[in-house]
Specification:
globular; Trp_synth_beta/beta-like; pyridoxal phosphate; TrpB-like_PALP_sf; tryptophan synthase activity; 2 domains; two-stranded parallel ribbon; mainly alpha; Tryptophan synthase subunit beta
């Protein structure tokens, strides 16, 4: 069953909050499996492992096509799984890793 989230801005964070709220009232008969890079160990590690294919494939393909690494990698950080997936392969390289948030107000707004 899909339940639409009406609280907050409709971001992934808001959806997760609602899912956790529901789970906390039905934990005896349900299990909450988060799909983002948040929560207690081992969930973030599991997400990183599963999503790391994004970075591995990206690195392989860019090196095949361009023969060099890119200057920057940009990923959405709403839930973290996309970002951790692609950033993990490039974390030790001299590359700008840039995370963007869909509900962000911008660096110059002070919010």
């Amino acid at each position: 069953e899909v339940i639409t989230v009406h609280n907050g801005l409709g971001t992934l964070k808001d959806a997760c909050n609602e899912a956790l709220r529901d789970w906390s009232s039905s934990y005896k008969t349900s299990h909450y499996m988060i799909g983002t890079a948040a929560g207690p160990h081992p969930y973030p590690t599991i997400v990183k492992e599963f999503q790391s294919i994004i970075g591995k494939e990206t690195k392989k393909q860019i090196l095949e096509k361009e023969n060099k690494l890119p200057d920057s990698i940009i990923a959405c950080v709403g839930g973290g799984s996309n970002a951790i997936g692609i950033f993990s392969e490039f974390i030790n390289d001299q590359i700008n890793l840039i995370g963007v948030e869909p509900a962000g107000h911008g660096i110059h707004t002070g919010k």
